[in-house]
Amino acid sequence: MTADSAHGPDIDVVGMWVTADGHIRQELRVDGRYDEARGTRASAYTGRYTVTGSHIDYVDDTGFTATGDVRDGVLHHEHLVLYRERPAS
After folding, report:
1. Is residue 19 within 8 Å of 26, Cβ to Cβ?
2. Distance between CA atoms of 40 and 50, rounded to whole angstroms?
């Protein structure tokens, strides 16, 4: 993922992102793939993503596309709000 002069350097989004209620969990992997679980349904959505600045473009394995933006450390993915999950210490 490269820096884009119009958007600044790409932010680090790799890791697990989760809704406040824990129902939706989206893992953004270092290899540019994502895996989204919904409730008890593991891998409900899978595909690839690219980052430009703080903007994320998603392409689902079925061809569906979506977008997201990270603002103040919070991922706004279409109508979802996800927070970075921190490992237990």
Report:
1. no
2. 27
pLDDT of residue 6 exceeding 60, the answer is no
CB 60 within 8 Å of CB 45: yes
Q: CA 65, CA 38: separation in Å to the nearest integer?
A: 18
CB 63 within 8 A of CB 46: no
Q: How far apart are CA 45 and CA 73, in angstroms?
A: 23
Please report where in the chains the tokens 């569906």 appear, as a residue. Answer: 64
pLDDT tens string 24-39: 999 999 999 999 999 9
